[in-house]
Amino acid sequence: MPVLCLRNMYKTPCSRLTGLLGTTVNKQLSARAAKCPLSSRGLTQLRSTHPKEWLTFQQLRFLKRQYVVRHSGALGQRPRPKQEPVSAALEDRGDVMLQQVQQIPTIKSVAGLAVPAPGAKPPPDLSNEPEADRLARIEARQWKELKVDYSELPDVYARLSKINLTALVVTTAAAGFAMAPVPFDPYLFLYASLGTGLCSCTANSINQYFEVPFDSNMNRTKNRPLVRGQISPLHAVSFALACGIPGVALLTLAVNPLTGLLGALNIVLYTSCYTPLKRLSITNTWMGAVVGAIPPIMGWTAATGSLDAGALLMGGLLYSWQFPHFNALSWNLREDYSRGGYRMMSVTHPDMCRRVALRHSLGLIGLSSLAPVVGITTWTFPLVSLPINLYISYLAFRFYRNADRQNARKLFFCSLWHLPMLLLLALTCKTRRTEPEALPASSSLSVLS
User: How does DSSP classify residue 76?
Assistant: First the structure.
């Protein structure tokens, strides 16, 4: 009976024992005293006669989290359920797995016999391998020297120098030479065209040398010689130097120093400014337009030896023409430029790309009207060039309103024939210089006498 009383006394919620220990126990005893048939004196006698049936003081410290009753020398516990930490469960599971792994018997390897891993293919038997196969296998693991097929070198050099772009550069330089208001000198024209072409080959080769990692990610440029490994980078740089040094020297010595300086400047701008800017900023488009505007200026300075307003006007025509041409081209290559990591206007600023193409297409009309003012053409040139300038402006307006692949393609192909037609019309309407007539022989004799 005393034991049952004590058990009923201490089967109370543990939240009531969170205060001071003595006060809480006295309150519980007072609350249970009315229900318990034993008095306080009886409880004291029970403590003295049955010490083993009484709760010890140390056991009361556990009452905050669990119910503990001491009975017959043993502790009867009913702990509060606690959630086991995940880390402990994983550690226990890891210990179990480790024990299971340690229980796996080790496989003793026999001398001279390799035990294959489960699921692995057995190694090939090389004991009976033919000598030719063995030599081929060893040779495949060795470093090989890049073998160049000399019969393919002309094609490789043509693609390395971007022969189509170089031809366009030489054409615009020849147009600037032909538009100069001086008598035509065929030898000087040949030297200027050859030197300009060599400078263009140098710039394009160095450009491809720098862009090999990025060209390999683009469908448009993945078949270039350096990307495919048809020639080594040293070979490409050697070709660039073999073109650049004679090209600049030819322009400087055989033409004039001003043209040689412009040729060297164009190489530097294309390789050191335009090429790295393609991955940094959209200003690369404007820098590329400046590079494209220099060749007709070089042709003009090659013929005249000076930098006049007519040379700047010819460069301005090329400068403005490049924006509708290149913006329309890059619009359909946006995915390629994105894969290559190039910051083109069509990729990062599509609205600006359309506006700039339209703006410079309309600018061609104004520049054509300035040609007779400068004095390099007659007033018929603005009239005869107006239809083609209006047509490219119309296509640029359509591209601005609805920039889809079809409108971009139409504008690009129009720019391909627009520039040659514009230069041909300018050459047709060129202002003819009247040379002073020679004095008669009789008058010259009279003057001498």
Answer: E
Domain span at residue 340 reads 312-433
Looking at the predicted structure, is the pLDDT value of residue 416 above 60?
yes
Statement to judge: residues 232 and 336 lie in one domain: no
Q: Tell me the HSE value of 391 on the side-chain side, using a 13 A CA sphere.
A: 15
Tokens 């040949």 identify what position?
190
DSSP secondary structure code for residue 54 in this structure: S
Mean pLDDT, residues 35-41: 52
For residues 235 and 153, state if they share a domain. yes
10 has pLDDT over 50: no
Residue 15 confidence (pLDDT) above 50: no
Q: Do 266 and 365 sit in the same domain of this protein?
A: no
Q: Which ranges of 183-308 would DSSP assign to H, the alpha helix?
A: 186-210, 212-215, 225-228, 233-250, 257-268, 275-277, 284-304
Report the distance separating Cα 441 and Cα 449, nearest Å.
12
Same domain, 153 and 302: yes
Domain assignment present for residue 397? The answer is yes
98 in a domain, yes or no? no
Q: Is the domain of 251 the same as that of 390?
A: no
Q: Domain with 188 in it: what CATH number?
A: 1.10.357.140
Same domain membership, residue 291 and residue 184: yes
HSE-up of residue 275 (Cα within 13 Å, Cβ side): 19
- Most confident range (mean pLDDT) of 94-108, 117-131, 188-202 is 188-202
Q: In angstroms, rounded to a whole number, what is the distance separating the alpha carbons of residues 25 and 31?
A: 10
Count other C-beta atoms under 10 Å from residue 118's C-beta.
5
Q: Give the count of domains, the chain.
A: 3
295, pLDDT greater than 80: yes
Residues 314 and 381 sit within 8 Å (Cβ to Cβ): no
- Look at phi and psi of residue 216 and say left if phi exceeds 0, alpha if psi is from -120 to 50, else beta: alpha
Flag whether 107 is in a domain: no
Domain membership of residue 318 (yes or no) is yes
Residues 220 and 341 in one domain: no
CB 170 within 8 A of CB 199: no
78: its two tokens: 């009913």
- Other CB atoms within a 10 A radius of the CB of residue 341 amount to 13
Shared domain for 206 and 242, answered yes or no, is yes
pLDDT tens-digit series, residues 120-151: 566 666 667 777 777 777 776 665 566 666 77
Residue-wise pLDDT tens digits, 41-70: 555 565 566 555 555 545 555 554 444 444
Q: Specify the pLDDT at position 114.
A: 52
Residue whose C-alpha is closest to residue 204's, from 171, 173, 231, 166: 166
Mean of pLDDT values over 29-52: 56
